[in-house]
Amino acid sequence: MAQDRKRQRPNILITGTPGTGKTTTSSALADAAQLRHVSIGDLVKEKNLHDGWDDELQCYVINEDLVCDELEDLMEEGGVIVDYHGCDFFPERWFDRVVVLQTENSILYDRLTKRGYEGAKLSNNIECEIFQILLEEAKENYEENIVVALRSDTVQDVASNVETLANWVNNWQPVS
Ligand code: ADP
Ligand code: MN
């Protein structure tokens, strides 16, 4: 699999429960390491890569095949940060690093409440974080040695995560 990679710069997946700081971290890292930030949620909306609106879950029903087709060329080029609260439908070969952001429950609760989440949507996301669903999903779908869990409770955490990841990007060597 490694021999197929032609990219000169690494691709990173930043995942985690909604509210853990994926978009904040991804955009800061994109600036710090000159990578392209792709928010899957925004892409789905912009390019209509969905099968309608789910009233119960209050979100678009993402069309995973359309999303993967849309991104294939970009991912092959490399230097992309993908930002999404799921990781089980992307091709494994796309990513050199899979980052799972994690946030302490009461902090996450406040962030999601501020964002207007309530009822089942709020409790589902808090449960998702308590049970470390995204970390499990990442470990199931990618080699464990490329998966890293990072704490994202404070703004200092964002800064140090961005620094750590930018250093990793700058030291990354393409497979020759
Ligand atoms: P996600 O993309 O994972 O849903 P966001 O990056 O949109 O999360 O962050 C959600 C909210 O929480 C934003 O208001 C952001 O400023 C704040 N936030 C995210 N991560 C942190 C952090 N580590 N420390 C403090 N505030 C944060
Ligand atoms: Mn986001």
Structure write-up:
InterPro entries: Adenyl_kinase_AK6, P-loop_NTPase. Residues 114-124 are annotated as: LID. There is one protein chain. The protein is α/β, with parallel strands linked by helices and 176 residues long. The protein has a domain at 9-39 and 80-162: Rossmann fold, CATH 3.40.50.300. The protein is 46% helix and 18% strand. A hairpin with a 4-residue loop joins strand 3 and strand 4 (59-62). The chain starts with 11 loop residues before the first strand and ends in a 5-residue tail after the last helix.
Strand order of the largest sheet: 2-5-1-6-7
Q: CATH topology of the domain at 9-39 and 80-162, anyone?
A: Rossmann fold
Q: Give the strand tally.
A: 7
CATH class of the domain at 9-39 and 80-162: Alpha Beta
* Beta-strand fraction estimate: 15-25%
Structural class: alpha/beta
Given as residue ranges, the uncertain stretches (5+ residues, pLDDT < 50) are none
Bound molecules: adenosine-5'-diphosphate, manganese (II) ion
Shape: globular
Please give the radius of gyration in angstroms. Answer: 16 Å
Give the termini distance in whole angstroms.
Answer: 13 Å
Give the SSE order as H and E letters: EHEHEEHEEHHHEH
Superfamily (CATH H level) name of the domain at 9-39 and 80-162: P-loop containing nucleotide triphosphate hydrolases
Number of helices: 7
Question: Secondary-structure blueprint of this entry?
Answer:
Blueprint (H helix, E strand, L loop, with lengths): L11 E4 L6 H12 L2 E4 H7 L3 E5 L4 E4 L1 H14 L2 E4 L13 E6 L2 H10 L4 H12 L2 H9 L5 E5 L3 H17 L5
Parallel strand pairs: 1-5, 1-6, 2-5, 6-7
Antiparallel strand pairs: 3-4
Helix pairs in contact: 1-7, 4-5
